[in-house]
Write a structure and sequence with these properties.
By secondary structure, the chain is mostly beta strands. It has one helix spanning 89-92, and strands at 8-9, 13-17, 20-22, 29-34, 44-50, 72-76, 82-86, 94-101, 111-116, 133-137, 139-144, 147-151, 156-160. The strands form three sheets. A six-stranded mixed sheet has the order 1-12-11-5-8-7. The longest helix is centred in the middle third of the chain and has 4 residues, at 89-92. The N and C termini lie far apart (53 Å).
Length: 173
Amino acid sequence: MDLRRLPTFHLSVSEVEPAVAYAGEREQFTVRIGGVHIPRGTKIRLLLGGGRGNATDWAPPQTTDPTAAEYTTAEASNGAKLSLKPLDWDETKLVGLEIVPLDKDISADDIITIRLGDTSEGCPGSTPQTFSQLKRHFHVLIQHADAWHRAENPPTLEVSGGPADRVRLILPS
């Protein structure tokens, strides 16, 4: 799927906290999206990476064991019940989540909060990619009438190298 060719929409809320991740170091990441009407039953995809021009080795999220790494949760500010499942890597070749509001629409005033590596029940966090990247986009896709649309302003963070653990010097003899 070439994301650049999809029709776009604008999010009025599009953020990731913390704004900087350290390559390969686990942490809880909170992603907030809002500002678009999403009817109940509509598929929303949060892509952590994968696909053309979006390489990553970000660890895939899981939703079944709150004490294990990569445990991920989501909630809507209006209390809508959300279905949350990781994307099937074999089917999509993408790392991410599919979120579906089950019992109510999400209005443009509502915010969906996703916690990657939700530490509230013992999860040690989410493992970001192991390489630096100035702008790591978490693409947001919404399916309308069997066609996918992407956010023109996806949540973005910086992935930075961690502190040096050694220094090597090569000098002439």
